[in-house]
Each structure stands twice: as structure tokens, then as C-alpha cells.
Amino acid sequence: MSDLGHVLVLAGGLSYEREVSLRSGRRVSDVLRAGGIDVQVRDTDAGLVPAVLADPPDVVFVTLHGGSGEDGAIRSVLELLSLPYVGATPDACRIAYDKPTAKTVVRSVGVPTPEAVVLPKETFHDLGASAVLARIIERLGLPLFVKPSRGGSALGGSIVRKADELPAAMVGCFAYGDTALIERYVEGVEVAVSVIDLGDGPEALPPVEIVADEGVYDYSARYTAGHTEFFAPARLRPEVADACAELAVTAHRALGLRDLSRTDMIVDADGRPHFLEVNVAPGMTETSLLPMAVEAAGKDLGAICHRLLQVARDRR
């Protein structure tokens, strides 16, 4: 019999990443049940609060991606209900979820991150899109990477290698958010480093190298088996892998995160990693990067999830 009591896994939600969240929730609940833990999976609908008030769980594992799952909103509700949960606090989530803000914070502690311009959709309407886009290219050069300032799973993100591709990239970006983050694109090796804290401080798991078939790690490449090749651990020189781990732990601490996170970065030709963004609720699906890193470290995902729940419960 588990020492955790009744565990609630939150999955689903109404963001564009709903299906991914449901898959993450199933994966986490499966590995926990395999360890003899009493698990219930619930969506974040109108029945959630009455249900947890009627039968309060002992601890909650949040596997919600995008929107309220990562912007702190659902965690604020969990705080109101006095329910312990795995993951960052609402305040930390709000900072990390906003990509421009997260870049500013990590840059302030010496972490390199690509130069960028942040512009809301209204700016293009008010000032004229063509004039603004021309100045962006003049300032940042090409290639660029365009993505919404909030959200995950690369939805609305695209590489711009030629000037005439930028307008379409902006339109695609604004389909998923009202503010665009336009970054100077750094050519190199795409790497993700997961960080876990099992009670003794944050530690980086082995970096995972990402090689997408089409050259872009977009939504399809992330969640369709066979569309991306992964190397866990990444094919990096030891000193470069150490630099990636240090960057991820530094970002985790600077942003005030706890329990787990995943930092996405690019390693340039000189072996220098550049921060791109951080995820406060890393995916747990069969093709997600944190479970790959756990396996590469020779650890058991179920045991780690169990320990994270213990840490969260003990905080109460």
C-alpha cells in the first residue's frame, strides 16, 4: 500500500495542447498505478472544485500543458483549496510562461539567449506591417525564429530564412497568440535538459538531442512517432554537456521553479548553449523529452513521480 494516500492527476484543459496533456496524464497515472498508488485522473472543468471539496486528494500531480496549466491559474486554485501539488508556484509560473519575461530573467544572471523583438499584433495594425517587418530584419538579420510569446509545443512557431517568409510567419504566430516573439535564429544542435528536485536541490538529467526530419521541431515532429530522431544522452562533448546542465539548473533557480522543469536550448558551433525557453510542466508522453532523459539517467519514471509527490505532500 502506498504512503501517498489518494493522488489526483490533472490532465486535459482547454488549451491547444489538450490532447498532449491527456496523454501525459495517462502516462503519469499508469506509472503511479504500477507502483500501487491510488490515482484518479480529472479534467479541469466545472466539476473539479466540487469534486475535490467532497473528496480531497492528498496530493496533486499537474500534467496540464499551455494556458491555465502553465500560467499559474490552476495552481492558484489549488492554493485556494489548500491542496499540495507537484510543480512551480503560481508566481513562478507566470514569469516562466511568458517567454520574453523568462528571457529577461535568465539574461540578468548571465545566461546567453538570442536577441529578440517582442511585438503585439496591434502594433502591426497601427504602424503598418511592412515597415515594422523591414526594421526587424534590419535589426536582427536572417534567419529568424517567430513564435507566440506564450504557449508551448511549438504551436505557431516557424523559421524565417528569407525576408518574404516573415509576413506568413507572423500570421501563423498570431493564430495562437496576440504577441509575437521574433528571435535571431541560432544555427546549431537543439537540446533539451530536464531538471528534477527530489528534495536535495535541483539536478540536471542527461541532455536530449533533437533531430527533426524536416529540420523544425514543430508540433507534428514532437508528438508523431518516427518524425524526429532523439539521442539521449545528446552527442555532445562532456564539457558542452556540462555547460548545458549548468544553464538548465541556473534557469530553474533564477525563475524560482521547483520540483521539475525542462529548458530548451540551442548549442552553437562553438559549443555554447543559448537559452530558448523553459517549460514548467514538461510533457510525459511516450515521445516526450523528460521521460527520455530519465531513462538515459538509468532512473525509473514511476519512482521519480512517486518521490516528487512525496516532496509536494511534505511541503504542506
TrEMBL record:
Pathway assignment: Cell wall biogenesis; peptidoglycan biosynthesis
GO CC terms in record: cytoplasm
Cofactor notes: Binds 2 magnesium or manganese ions per subunit.
Source taxon at top rank: Bacteria
E.C. designation(s): 6.3.2.4
Keywords: ATP-binding, Cell shape, Cell wall biogenesis/degradation, Cytoplasm, Ligase, Magnesium, Manganese, Metal-binding, Nucleotide-binding, Peptidoglycan synthesis
Binding-site positions, Mg(2+) 1: 264, 277
Any one GO MF annotation of this record: D-alanine-D-alanine ligase activity
Binding site for Mg(2+) 2: 277, 279
Catalysed reactions, semicolon-separated: 2 D-alanine + ATP = D-alanyl-D-alanine + ADP + phosphate + H(+)
Annotated GO biological process: cell wall organization; peptidoglycan biosynthetic process; regulation of cell shape
Cofactor(s) this protein requires: Mg(2+); Mn(2+)
Segments forming domain ATP-grasp: 103-310
Major localization class: cytoplasm
Broad enzyme group: ligase
Entry annotation: catalytic residues: 17, 153, 288
The protein, known as: D-alanine--D-alanine ligase
Organism: Sphaerisporangium rufum
